[in-house]
Amino acid sequence: MSDTPLLSPADVEAIARAAHEGQTDKAGRPYAEHLAAVADGVRRRGGDAEQIAAAWLHDAVEDDALSERWLREAPLSPRTKAIVLAVTKRAGESPEAYAARILATPGAPLVKEADLAHNADPARLAVLDPATRTRLTEKYARMRALLGLPAAQDPAG
To the nearest whole number, what is the mean pLDDT of the chain? Predict the structure, then answer.
Protein backbone atom coordinates (compact mmCIF):
# COMPACT_ATOMS: atom_id res chain seq x y z
CA MET A 1 0.00 0.00 0.00
CA SER A 2 2.95 2.34 0.57
CA ASP A 3 3.23 3.30 -3.13
CA THR A 4 -0.53 3.36 -3.72
CA PRO A 5 -2.04 6.78 -3.12
CA LEU A 6 -4.81 6.86 -0.57
CA LEU A 7 -8.36 7.28 -1.79
CA SER A 8 -9.41 10.91 -1.98
CA PRO A 9 -12.34 12.12 0.13
CA ALA A 10 -14.44 12.29 -3.05
CA ASP A 11 -13.47 8.71 -3.93
CA VAL A 12 -14.43 7.45 -0.45
CA GLU A 13 -17.79 9.20 -0.70
CA ALA A 14 -18.43 7.77 -4.18
CA ILE A 15 -17.50 4.24 -3.05
CA ALA A 16 -19.75 4.49 0.02
CA ARG A 17 -22.68 5.84 -2.00
CA ALA A 18 -22.27 3.08 -4.60
CA ALA A 19 -21.90 0.36 -1.95
CA HIS A 20 -25.15 1.40 -0.25
CA GLU A 21 -27.02 2.08 -3.52
CA GLY A 22 -30.62 0.94 -3.23
CA GLN A 23 -30.50 0.65 0.58
CA THR A 24 -32.84 2.68 2.74
CA ASP A 25 -32.85 3.57 6.41
CA LYS A 26 -35.59 2.60 8.88
CA ALA A 27 -37.64 5.59 7.72
CA GLY A 28 -37.39 4.54 4.07
CA ARG A 29 -34.95 7.30 3.09
CA PRO A 30 -31.94 6.58 0.84
CA TYR A 31 -29.17 5.27 3.08
CA ALA A 32 -26.63 7.65 1.54
CA GLU A 33 -28.46 10.51 3.30
CA HIS A 34 -27.47 8.98 6.64
CA LEU A 35 -23.86 8.56 5.53
CA ALA A 36 -23.69 12.16 4.36
CA ALA A 37 -25.23 13.41 7.63
CA VAL A 38 -22.72 11.43 9.72
CA ALA A 39 -19.78 12.65 7.61
CA ASP A 40 -21.05 16.23 7.97
CA GLY A 41 -21.54 15.69 11.71
CA VAL A 42 -17.93 14.52 12.04
CA ARG A 43 -16.73 17.56 10.09
CA ARG A 44 -18.82 19.96 12.21
CA ARG A 45 -17.43 18.36 15.39
CA GLY A 46 -13.86 19.06 14.24
CA GLY A 47 -13.08 15.65 12.80
CA ASP A 48 -10.21 15.23 10.39
CA ALA A 49 -10.10 13.71 6.90
CA GLU A 50 -9.48 10.19 8.22
CA GLN A 51 -12.50 10.40 10.52
CA ILE A 52 -14.67 11.82 7.73
CA ALA A 53 -13.63 8.93 5.47
CA ALA A 54 -14.52 6.50 8.26
CA ALA A 55 -17.88 8.24 8.65
CA TRP A 56 -18.71 7.58 5.01
CA LEU A 57 -17.74 3.91 5.49
CA HIS A 58 -18.99 3.43 9.08
CA ASP A 59 -21.80 1.00 8.20
CA ALA A 60 -20.33 -0.56 5.05
CA VAL A 61 -18.93 -3.74 6.63
CA GLU A 62 -21.73 -4.14 9.17
CA ASP A 63 -24.37 -3.85 6.42
CA ASP A 64 -22.43 -6.16 4.06
CA ALA A 65 -22.19 -3.31 1.56
CA LEU A 66 -18.42 -3.87 1.46
CA SER A 67 -16.46 -6.80 2.81
CA GLU A 68 -13.99 -6.65 5.67
CA ARG A 69 -11.41 -7.93 3.19
CA TRP A 70 -12.16 -4.97 0.88
CA LEU A 71 -11.64 -2.62 3.82
CA ARG A 72 -8.36 -4.25 4.87
CA GLU A 73 -7.01 -4.06 1.28
CA ALA A 74 -8.38 -0.61 0.39
CA PRO A 75 -5.98 2.31 -0.04
CA LEU A 76 -7.10 3.97 3.19
CA SER A 77 -5.04 5.04 6.18
CA PRO A 78 -4.60 2.47 8.96
CA ARG A 79 -6.42 4.89 11.29
CA THR A 80 -9.47 5.12 8.99
CA LYS A 81 -9.62 1.32 8.76
CA ALA A 82 -9.31 0.98 12.54
CA ILE A 83 -12.16 3.44 13.10
CA VAL A 84 -14.45 1.64 10.65
CA LEU A 85 -13.70 -1.71 12.28
CA ALA A 86 -14.19 -0.22 15.77
CA VAL A 87 -17.68 1.08 14.95
CA THR A 88 -18.70 -2.13 13.15
CA LYS A 89 -21.00 -4.13 15.42
CA ARG A 90 -20.25 -7.83 15.70
CA ALA A 91 -22.83 -10.59 16.01
CA GLY A 92 -23.63 -11.38 19.62
CA GLU A 93 -21.51 -8.53 20.96
CA SER A 94 -22.71 -6.77 24.08
CA PRO A 95 -23.23 -3.00 24.00
CA GLU A 96 -20.57 -2.72 26.72
CA ALA A 97 -17.94 -4.56 24.63
CA TYR A 98 -18.88 -2.52 21.56
CA ALA A 99 -18.55 0.77 23.46
CA ALA A 100 -15.23 -0.32 25.00
CA ARG A 101 -13.77 -1.04 21.54
CA ILE A 102 -14.93 2.35 20.25
CA LEU A 103 -13.45 4.14 23.27
CA ALA A 104 -10.15 2.26 22.82
CA THR A 105 -9.79 3.31 19.17
CA PRO A 106 -8.42 6.82 18.56
CA GLY A 107 -10.85 8.82 16.46
CA ALA A 108 -13.74 6.37 16.72
CA PRO A 109 -15.73 8.04 19.53
CA LEU A 110 -16.28 11.17 17.44
CA VAL A 111 -17.55 9.13 14.48
CA LYS A 112 -19.92 7.17 16.71
CA GLU A 113 -21.11 10.40 18.37
CA ALA A 114 -22.04 11.83 14.95
CA ASP A 115 -23.74 8.53 14.00
CA LEU A 116 -25.78 8.48 17.21
CA ALA A 117 -26.73 12.15 16.82
CA HIS A 118 -28.18 11.52 13.37
CA ASN A 119 -29.82 8.24 14.38
CA ALA A 120 -31.50 9.98 17.32
CA ASP A 121 -32.63 13.02 15.33
CA PRO A 122 -36.25 13.57 16.41
CA ALA A 123 -37.26 14.35 12.81
CA ARG A 124 -35.96 10.92 11.69
CA LEU A 125 -37.53 9.12 14.65
CA ALA A 126 -40.89 10.89 14.25
CA VAL A 127 -41.78 8.90 11.13
CA LEU A 128 -41.34 5.54 12.89
CA ASP A 129 -44.07 3.66 14.73
CA PRO A 130 -44.18 4.47 18.47
CA ALA A 131 -42.75 1.12 19.62
CA THR A 132 -39.78 1.34 17.27
CA ARG A 133 -39.21 5.01 18.14
CA THR A 134 -39.17 4.19 21.87
CA ARG A 135 -36.89 1.15 21.42
CA LEU A 136 -34.38 3.08 19.32
CA THR A 137 -34.44 6.16 21.55
CA GLU A 138 -33.58 3.97 24.54
CA LYS A 139 -30.90 2.08 22.58
CA TYR A 140 -29.20 5.29 21.44
CA ALA A 141 -29.39 6.85 24.93
CA ARG A 142 -27.79 3.74 26.43
CA MET A 143 -24.93 3.83 23.92
CA ARG A 144 -24.37 7.56 24.56
CA ALA A 145 -24.13 6.75 28.29
CA LEU A 146 -21.70 3.86 27.69
CA LEU A 147 -19.52 6.20 25.62
CA GLY A 148 -19.64 8.91 28.27
CA LEU A 149 -21.48 11.32 25.99
CA PRO A 150 -24.02 13.80 27.35
CA ALA A 151 -27.67 13.02 26.82
CA ALA A 152 -28.93 14.01 23.39
CA GLN A 153 -30.12 17.59 23.25
CA ASP A 154 -33.59 18.45 22.01
CA PRO A 155 -32.85 20.64 18.97
CA ALA A 156 -35.98 22.67 19.76
CA GLY A 157 -34.77 23.38 23.30
Answer: 93
